[in-house]
Amino acid sequence: MVAVGRVIAIANQKGGVGKTTTAINVAVALAQSGARVLLIDLDPQSNATSGLTRDASDLKPGAPRVSIYDAMIERLSLSAIIRQVRDNLMLAPAGADLVGAEIELATAEARELRVKHIVESARVEYNYVLIDSPPSLGLLTLNALVAADSVLIPLQCEYYALEGLSALLGTIRRVRQALNPGLRIEGIVLTMFDSRNRLSRDIEREVRGHFPDQVFAVVIPRSVRLSESPSHGLSIFEYEGRSAGAEAYRRLAAEVAARTEQPSAES
Ligand SMILES: Nc1ncnc2c1ncn2[C@@H]1O[C@H](COP(=O)(O)OP(=O)(O)OP(=O)(O)O)[C@@H](O)[C@H]1O
Ligand SMILES: [Mg+2]
Predict the structure, then answer these.
(1) Which ligand ends up closest to the CA of 17?
(2) Mean pLDDT computed over 47-56
(3) Looking at the predicted structure, is the pLDDT value of residue 256 above 50?
(4) If both were cysteines, with which of 7, 29, 80, 125 could 253 make a disulfide (CB 3.0 to 4.6 Å apart)?
């Protein structure tokens, strides 16, 4: 079977809303379900990279420390920088050098298209390419949005959640007009939901009211297990597979997969 890779950017310029937690756990859940998955870490903080790998010794001994930076700037091939982190799951790691990419690319030609070019060659090999992006609307996030078929937006259940969302939706609109007309909203996923907290329930109602067709049915609960797992280099399924957080991310991955099977649901 030739994989028809879907490229999904996970984006929200607000920091700490659950982008990386979502990227890691959806990637592992999809891989565990049998899909071939590539996760691209496009954040200089490298949280997705460290959250899936225990330490640098996971690298082959003597192997150069290459990252997505080298593919973007030095034009290394994707196959030269990826590493297998789980069955069915490849990681294009990030490093701190990615901070420099924004500056080094500032005057480069076609600077918004670097990740798109890298990803195009990968589509035939993967069912899903997920891109974790940094908390800004700078050049790295722009590269993710230009490369993607759709955007998955984690939204933290807190008071200012919707305010940041309008800036992101404005950026998505501009990217559609100028660089990637086919860019769709994969969906909004509510994260760090606390059912005992009235604010969480109010935010959920408000977001579902505003975007009736675009909010995933599953809500990711606030869970200490979810926040602990990355420090062990593990997904929630490997760290505490029976927790509510694991169940929620399993369901989110299933919703993403179901949307993939019905591509006619254009938005
Ligand atoms: N559902 C959850 N319950 C509890 N803690 C969570 C949950 N999701 C994420 N966290 C924790 O909240 C913090 C921010 O999450 P995460 O790193 O996924 O967000 P982010 O949007 O990627 O952040 P950044 O914008 O810095 O990249 C982390 O410490 C993470 O472990
Ligand atoms: Mg992150």
Answers:
(1) 1
(2) 87
(3) yes
(4) 29
Q: What's 222's DSSP letter?
A: P
Asked whether residue 267 is assigned to any structural domain, the reply reads no
Dump pLDDT digits (tens) for 147-200. Answer: 999 999 999 998 888 888 999 999 999 999 999 999 999 999 999 999 999 999
Q: Is residue 266 part of a domain?
A: no
What's the Rg (C-alpha) of the chain?
A: 17
Domain that holds residue 199: 6-261
Supply the CATH number for residue 22's domain. 3.40.50.300
Residue 185: inside a domain: yes
Query: Does residue 111 belong to any structural domain of this protein?
Result: yes
Q: What is the pTM of this model?
A: 0.95
Q: Encoding tokens for residue 21?
A: 């937690």
Q: Is the pLDDT of residue 63 over 80?
A: no
For atom 9 of ligand 1, which residue has the closest CA?
18
Shortest-distance atom of ligand 1 to CA 47: 17
Gap between the Cα atoms of 246 and 42, Å rounded:
24
Distance 158 CA to ligand 1 centre (A): 13
Domain count, the chain: 1
Distance 2 CA to ligand 2 centre (A): 31
CA nearest ligand 1 atom 28, residue? 227
User: Could you tell me the distance, in angstroms and rounded to a whole number, from the CA of residue 63 to the centre of ligand 1?
Assistant: 30
15 CA → ligand 1 middle, Å: 8
Q: Is the CB of 223 under 6 A from ligand 1?
A: yes
Q: How far is CA 73 from CA 48, 95, 116, 145, in A?
A: 20, 13, 13, 18
